[in-house]
Amino acid sequence: MKTAQRTNKWKKIMMWTILSIVIIVAGVFVYLNSVTYSPSERAEAAMTSDAQVNVTKLKDGYRFEPVDTKVTEPNIIFYPGGLVEPESYSPLAREMAEQGHRVYIANMPMNLAIFGQNKADSFIEEHPNEAFVIGGHSLGGSFASRYAAEHNEKLEGVFFLASYADEGGSLKNTNLSILQITGSNDGVLNRESWESAKANLPEDTTYVSIEGGNHGQFGSYGMQKGDNQPEVTEEKQLEEVVAALENWMNRFE
Predict the structure, then answer these.
(1) CA of 64: how far to CAs of 8, 57, 79, 163, 244, in Å?
(2) pLDDT tens digits, 72-100
(3) In the chain, N or C: fewer CB atoms in 10 Å?
(4) Of 174, 223, 227, nearest to 200 (Cα)?
């Protein structure tokens, strides 16, 4: 009798434990969903294929590629910022595809690159004999850097949008070409950490500052908490990012 009572007690404890875990996990998902940034109408529109760019949904994200023209290498892999939905970067991906590049935007678990550092693998596997660069915005840039530090033989370069390479993603001893782009009105980027992290990059890193640009306008998802108001339009900031990327990648030819 006592054994049966003990068994029932443990069953109840296990049931309540499992229920508590389910409630906590559900709560975390609800919270993350509430603080995640969604794409603007402009970004949603950029997700549609047209006569210039074909947009394809993949297992690990999205592919943007030019229509009826030879792809210009390098291909571009992009890691989104933390808690930002990947579609928010479709205007940038579309612009680069219109320039002739094949662009991949990774879809991160819970919209956090910390859980999807190796997403680039599946994109590179599509065209293993072609050149690739990788980069990202904010948290995405840091984990793109970590991927590059472990797979530098697969890449030509790394670009950072309001981001930096931490010690785990140090690139200073690689032969990779590096591009750093920031906005002068960025209220989210930790400037002290960014400055310190320069030690993790090669001396010949290219630095570009967008006058009046802020943190959120590296994507298209509205104002981000803690950010400063921009002094340039989203379109102007995107134009300068595209120009900086093109100038940087032209060196690979």
Answers:
(1) 57, 9, 14, 23, 19
(2) 999 999 999 999 999 999 999 999 999 99
(3) N
(4) 174
CB 119 within 8 A of CB 66: no
The whole-model pTM stands at: 0.89
Q: How many Cβ atoms sit within 10 Å of the Cβ of residue 218?
A: 31
First vs last C-alpha separation in the chain = 81
Contact 142, 114 (CB under 8 A): no
Distance CA 224, CA 222 (A): 6
Q: Where are the beta strands (DSSP E) in 39-74?
A: 53-58, 61-66
Helix residue spans in the chain (DSSP H): 2-35, 41-46, 90-98, 120-126, 139-150, 191-196, 234-249
Using CA atoms, how far apart are residues 253 and 245, in angstroms rounded to an integer?
14
Peptide bond into 230 cis (omega under 30): no
